Amino acid sequence: MNISHLKESIIKLINEENTVSEKLQSICNLLKKEINYYNWVGFYFKNGNKLELKLAEFAGEPTEHVIIPFGKGICGQVALSNQNFVVPNVETQDNYISCGFKVKSEIVIPIFVNKINIGQIDIDSHTVNPFTKNDKLLLEFVCEKVAQLL
Ligand code: SME
Predict the structure, then answer these.
(1) pLDDT of 85-115, one tens digit each?
(2) Ligand 1 atom 3 nearest Cα
(3) What is the total count of domains within the chain?
(4) Nearest residue to 107 (alpha-carbon basis) of 134, 88, 80
(5) How many other CB atoms are there within 10 angstroms of residue 140's CB atom?
(6) Residue 36 sits in which domain range?
(7) Which of 26, 97, 102, 114 pairs with 128 at a CA distance of 20 to 30 A?
(8) Is 30 helix (H, G, I), strand (E, B) or coil?
């Protein structure tokens, strides 16, 4: 993974004359295309005043998990913990919502606006244990840039 190249591409996308939604969609598309073990990339955001996440833009197979209550699954846990959550092997997780038998690992990074956790980026991979420090660094960068759009 060439982090600096990917960061430049993300900045370019964000600076395009597009709506926020189009920018988020472009980020999902770019990450899924450029990183071969990113098989599903999506953004979940807090659903108004409800204690649940709602799926926003994503790239990859449609999922039935459009609404995720806080506390449920990896995403719902991150909504409460405010911490990155890297799952090298989803089989080891009890509190996990499956999006298909092909998914083997997952990484979720929260998005903070004014220090409040307002959503997250979620990546599913068909590979076991693919994520490194670079994924964390890249996705934290993406979340910081996205936060500035919101
Ligand atoms: N696996 C997630 C659910 C969302 S999908 O990955 C798109 C979870 O456990 O929260």
Answers:
(1) 999 999 999 999 998 899 999 999 999 999 9
(2) 97
(3) 1
(4) 88
(5) 15
(6) 3-149
(7) 26
(8) helix
Whether residue 108 has its Cβ less than 6 Å from ligand 1: no
Q: In sequence order, what E strands does the chain have? A: 40-46, 52-59, 67-69, 85-87, 105-113, 116-125
pLDDT digits 0-9 by tens, 33-47: 999 999 999 999 999
Q: What is the DSSP letter of 88?
A: S
Task: Kindly give the distance from the C-alpha atom of residue 17 to the centroid of ligand 1, in angstroms, as a whole number.
Answer: 31
Residue whose CA lies nearest to ligand 1 atom number 5: 99
Q: What is the CA radius of gyration of the chain?
A: 14
| Overall pTM surpassing 0.85 (yes/no) | yes
**CATH code assigned at 141:** 3.30.450.40
Other Cβ atoms less than 10 A from the Cβ of 100: the count is 12
Task: Give 11's contacts (C-beta < 8 A, 6+ positions apart).
Answer: 145
Among 104, 137, 136, which Cα is nearest to 37's?
104
Q: Helices marked H in 16-124 — which ranges?
A: 20-34, 73-81
